[in-house]
Amino acid sequence: MADPPGFLTATLDKVANWARYQSSWGATFGLACCAIEMMHTGAAHNDLARFGMEVFRASPRQADLMIVAGRVSQKMAPVLRQVYDQMPEPKWVISMGACASTGGMFNNYALVQGVDQVVPVDVYVPGCPPGPQSLMHAILTLHEGIKSGEFVRV
Amino acid sequence: MSDETTPEDVTSAPPDEAPASERERRQLQDMWAAGTEEPSWVTASTAEGAQLMLPRDQASPAEVAEEGGTLVADDRLYDEEQYEEETTILNMGPQHPSTHGVLRLQLELEGEIVRRVKPVIGYLHTGMEKTGETLTFLQGPTNVTRMDYLAPFHNELCFSLATEALLGVELPPRAQAIRVLMTELNRVSSHLMWVATQGMDLGAVSMMIYGIRERELLLAFFEKTTGLRMNHNYIRPGGVAADLPDGWEEDVAGIIEAIPQGLDDYHDLLTHNPIFLGRTQGVGVITPDECYAYGITGPPLRAAGIDWDLRKAQPYSGIEQYDFDVPLGEHGDVYDRYRVRMEEMRQSLGIVAQVAESMPAGDYRTEDLKVTPPPRKRIDESMEALIHHFKIFTEGFKVPAGEHYQAIEGPRGELGHYVVSLGEATPWRIHCRTPSFAAVQALPIMMADQLIADSVAIIASIDPVLGDVDR
Amino acid sequence: MSDATPVPEIVAEEPPAPALPTPLDGLAEAFPDVAFETSAAGQNVARVEASHLVEFAQAARDAGFEMFVDVTAVDYYRQRPGPRYDVVVGLLSLQHNTRLRIRVGVDGDVPAAPSITRVYPGANFYEREVYDLFGIDFTGHPDLTRIMLPDDWEGHPLRKDTPVGSVPIQFRGTHKVQ
Q: Which of B69, B70, B248, C110 has minimal Cβ neighbours within 10 Å of its Cβ?
């Protein structure tokens, strides 16, 4: 957790956080059905670009938000970790859907039961799949958290 | 294998002695997390050992033939000896914007030309066939619907038909007509997503927006009818879960009017566009013999010129009553697959119009009370209904022993469910024969000797859904 | 399963109808010791010995079953007196519009079946999947490695003596119930 800011850095902190949440670009990490709903959230009807998430960057080096959309299998888990590690700070993770949050309906040998066993998660979105409105609510919650300084990674 | 290095040391130093082979070199690579502590349980790197592509001098001739797409027809364009030192093995995926999911392709490149392809799959393996053995037959559709997540109604239909064949129940005509309505609308929505991603992968980024714009109309109707936009669990053994909502005729009429306008727009944008033609004509050709050998069905087979559609050849769910054409291509390339799918959308909308016009009245599920739950209000009135409801939802209905393979024409090809029952309430074995699995296996045939930029077009044209591939 | 329930029959009890569709007629003649049956729902099933599988598949392909459909397996762990696994091959004939399902009994500590990739190259991935999830070796397969699971996975999940692998779900704030 960051130290409480002094009077000058408090304003700078706010500005930095404002820049971060107003333009958080996601890394494409669509895995399964939730990825389709993520695409819908970014498309015309429910437009994510109006919240600053203009594009989803394919390269994790250029992204600051990773939306893990879909079920993470045991084979995919090291890849997930590697992509997360390649993202530069500050970075946030949204675990989208039941499978990413807890393993969902697939409580079996093949899936990681919750992506928070692999990467630290900031916001969980329930649903199977969560509709675009749920995902947008989660993203806006994340933005509020960035704005207030609640989600801080040092 | 991995050094115990502190976070300051960012270099992943390889071991001192030279690795004995390329395979060992890959297995020794570390995954280093700059600035963060590597979690202790993640010791595996992302190399998958024996599943990866070996360099040409280490791979067996059979593997080289398979990966070069020359097993069925030796149509190589290269000179074998000439380029042995000049090739690179490139890894594409599993996290990639254009692989339509978590597909990992190992490409052996000679410059820009792909010589060999090895797909590495399993990154979305969910163990659905094992999970299916723990769920009752009524819960089965919830499981299988998440396989091909772009065409969930088709998965549910296939499973329900297989179960009903084992049960020996007959469905009322309204139930069958509702199933046809929903699956044909699903075909349209799946193809719309295909055209959106195909366009985007080729650079027509706005196609994504247009395709999804049309798709939203369909998803709104699905949500109204089934309660969910995707993964509906609506088509169940015995019928469908609920009747169509009030006002569905207007909704369907609106869809039938709006979508062809969208299709006309895409036609104007893409079909005669010189860039699109240049990128898709002659690219990714697959011949009928290769389709037979690899089990490729659906639009790629029809684009190669073979008139085979399970809705015509082995009809199911009353679809033979409706009039529709099966579009065929000629060359078997990406462009022909595009034309076939675009026309299929129009034909499906034609079927939907016929169903809407001729929707029979009646029950939306079979009368057999051992199979379908009674209507909710009857549970308050009748003890028998309560008991049936209880037994169906806790224990599940028992399906007589037997095995059955049910195949339907999904948007990607032949989708088949093989159900083995030993007389219990849960299936002993369910196996899903999915079209994308066969299509991904045939990628080497289509991608070999083409440019690496074409590989993106080819992957989009076979329309793989990785949930289908990996289950 | 209670002891009172008899071991169930997989196929219909009545003998197969004498008039088989054209490609199966020829196959029945050429392979007299292969049992052709019709399942309860009317599908053609042939029981073939493992040693004859490749020959039979080649003959089926020549007889008109040009399209390869599927290779999978079923584990009848302690459910029947015969071999533990059945490798199931699905074929389709477009010209005759008929399907054929071939069942091959496989047993043993290291179960093995012959690979039909020489006849149908598309069986490659399917046989790898059966090897991965059931542990059945396919002799003659060009590249028999795991396909769905990570390469260093131990065990074969779809076998019946392997549990589904579910994780017990614990809820904080509730009392533990015995």
A: C110
What rounded mean pLDDT belongs to chain B? 84
Is the torsion defined by CA of B346, B348, B349, B354 positive or negative?
positive
pTM, rounded to two decimals = 0.87
Please give the CATH architecture assigned to the domain spanning C22-139.
2-Layer Sandwich (3.30)
Q: Express each pLDDT in C54-70 by its tens digit.
A: 999 999 988 889 999 99
B252 part of a folded domain: yes
- Cβ <8 Å between B294 and C94: no
What average pLDDT is seen over chain C? Answer: 82
Q: How far apart are CA B96 and CA A56, in angstroms?
A: 12
- Percent with pLDDT over 70 in chain B: 87
Within an 8 Å CB–CB cutoff, is residue B123 touching chain C?
no
Q: What is the pLDDT of residues B24-42, one digit of tens each?
A: 544 444 333 334 444 433 4
The model's pLDDT over A82-105, given as tens digits with 9 standing for 90+, comes to 888 888 888 899 999 999 998 888
Task: Give a yes or no: residue B458 inside a domain.
Answer: no
Residue B402 lies in a domain: yes
Query: Encoding tokens for residue B161?
Result: 């038909």
ipTM value = 0.88
Q: Is B442 helix (H, G, I), strand (E, B) or coil?
A: coil
- With CA atoms as reference, the chain C residue closest to A105 would be C166
Q: Tell me, yes or no, whether B8 lies in a domain.
A: no
Rounded Cα gap, residues A115 and C94, in angstroms: 45
Report how far Cα B262 is from the mean position of its chain's Cα atoms. Answer: 24
A103 contacts on C by Cβ (under 8 Å): 167
CATH code, domain with B240: 1.10.645.10
Query: CB of C145 within 8 A of CB of C128?
Result: yes
For residue B263, the enclosing domain spans 140-406
Model pLDDT for residues B42-78, shown as the tens digit of each residue: 434 566 677 777 777 777 777 788 787 777 776 666 5
Cα distances (Å, whole numbers) of residue B230 to A128, B183, B216, B364, B414: 8, 13, 11, 21, 21
Residue from B268, B266, B273 nearest B192 by CA: B266
> How far, in Å, CA of B139 to CA of B141, rounded?
6
3-state SS class at A87: coil
User: Ranked by mean pLDDT, which of B89-103, B173-187, C157-171 comes out on top?
Assistant: B173-187
> Is C167 an interface residue toward A (CB < 8 Å)?
yes
- Chain B residues in contact with A131 by the CB 8 A cut-off are 229
Query: Hey, what are A151's tokens?
Result: 């989600």
